[in-house]
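Continuing the batch. This is chain 6 of the set; chains 1 through 5 are on the previous pages. Same settings as before, nothing changed between runs. Recording input and output for traceability.
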Amino acid sequence: MAPVLRRCFAALFVLTGLVAQTNLDVAGMPDDAPLAVTASHDGTKLRIVADLQQGWHLYGRDVGGGQPVAVKITGGAFTAGGDLATPTDAHGLITGKAELTLPLRRTVSGDALAATMAFMVCDALRCLPPIVLELHTAAAQPVQPAAQAASRGPCRVLLVAADESERTQRIAHFLRDRGFVATVTTYAAVTAAQCDQNDVVIADSETFMAVRGKKVPAERFPTTQSPVVAVGFLGTRVLEANKVAMACGYI
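Output for chain 6:
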């Protein structure tokens, strides 16, 4: 079909209200959840229908009870074009068979769309654990974590230590033997660019007695977007320098 004809048919559908609906797959609903959810979009709105069993409800807004419904566009050809509309009663509850709508704004061509729907479902006495659903067209099916990891290749680890001693090299070999791509640097030489280029940063440390008295500039550790595993005494100095107030755990 010529482009001009496609535009004409699209305009005709809009004018006559015959806008094609694209159904979305819904994944993540527990088998015993007291509701069913379906979803679709027509290029202008995402429509989610929640069909709740008698006596159960969702929250359309924060009223001090369970988690209100939150819908987030995560991929595809659209982004949110406004706020989520929820059919609530005077108490902020969503009951029965209810349609929630989210305006869409097109960013690229196509009808692919991926979104998440997070909520808690409650009755008069209790709320069930939070539920997060994945809503998506076939073309926008979310990539599973294992597939994402495979597409990126091996995990890249930057090992930052006081020096490049035999102990440091032994840790690096340990990581490489287990499939990681490990790079070694020191606290004196590490840069933010190095950290940002890796998937994980390990700020290593020997025991307090081993590093006591050494001039190790851990307090000048660069700020990075990569997650940092802070180990031992020097790790504590890294956390303090980055104003991390609380941490826990041992390695």
